[in-house]
Amino acid sequence: MIFLYLITWISFILQCSLAILSLAAGLYYIAEIIEEYTQATERLLRYMIFISTGIYAGLLLIEGFPFLMILVGLFSNLVYFGLLRTFPLIELSSPNFILSLILVAANHYFAFSYFGDTYHPFNEVLAYFTLQVWFVPFTFFVSLSAGDNVLPSYSPYGGQEDAMSHYIAKGKKQRSGVLSILEFAREAVLPSRAKRF
Predict the structure, then answer these.
(1) 100: Cβ contacts below 8 Å, ≥ 6 apart
(2) Is 55 among the domain residues?
(3) Range of the domain at 103
(4) What's the CA gap between 148 and 111, in Å, rounded?
(5) Mean pLDDT taken over the chain
(6) Which residues contact 62 (CB under 8 A, 6 or more apart)?
(7) What's this model's pTM, rounded to 2 decimal places?
(8) Alpha-carbon distance 65 to 60, whole Å?
(9) What is the mean pLDDT of residues 127-150?
């Protein structure tokens, strides 16, 4: 009995490791696609925000969800539209980005409060969290590294100097965001071999 119990734990650890590795590979692939097709990603994000707004309207009018919860969600969508103005260049210290992080936390709070008080089947709760709370912010999070490889042509934040001279004066910038974390993890797990001459 103990031997089978140990085998079960070893199998569980192996399954979790493979699931995490698969998730990391998927995130890396999605981040690469977003970096390659930034304009298409911007259009997709715009459509996702429109669809999310329509779902909020349906939840308010048809399902009778709390008005404050829907209002916070709609305000979040408005802030996400503000992030699209400078996409793929998202400044992590900008008030718009910081406000979007606060609103993600507020959306979680209101959703947990509502679903804690009102019974809904698990699949409905998961559908709400997936489509309304996680999908758009997660896409922005994965696309944070998309601005690293875009050539500077204009300064979205204003200022006296043009974007090209700012880029040259600043020097080569390190990659940031999810893609750099995943590349670091890839190098830690599968280090590249040194070239032999």
Answers:
(1) 76, 79, 80, 83, 137, 140
(2) yes
(3) 31-148
(4) 34
(5) 80
(6) none
(7) 0.66
(8) 5
(9) 80
Model confidence pLDDT, tens digit, residues 45-60: 899 999 999 999 999 9
135 falls within a domain: yes
Give 84-133 as a DSSP string: HTTTT---TTSHHHHHHHHHHHHHHHHHHHHHHHS---HHHHHHHIIIII
For residues 14-38, give the mean pLDDT: 85
Give me the sign of the Cα torsion angle 176, 180, 182, 188: negative
184 located within any domain: no
Across 145-166, average pLDDT? 54
- CA torsion angle 180 152 85 69 (round to 10): 10
Residues ≥6 apart with Cβ < 8 Å to 107? 72, 73, 76, 132, 133
* 130 assigned to some structural domain: yes
Angle at the Cα of 74 (from 73 to 77), degrees rounded to 5?
A: 90
Instruction: Render pLDDT for 162-176 as a digit per residue (tens, 0 to 9).
Output: 555 555 555 545 555
Q: What confidence score (pLDDT) does residue 141 get?
A: 83
Confidence at residue 34, expressed as pLDDT on a 0 to 100 scale: 80
Contact 147, 89 (CB under 8 A): yes
Report pLDDT for 149.
Answer: 56
Domain count across the chain? 1
Cβ neighbours of residue 146 closer than 8 Å, sequence gap 6 or more: 31, 34, 35, 38, 41, 88, 177
- Residues 6 or more apart in contact with residue 23 via CB below 8 angstroms: none
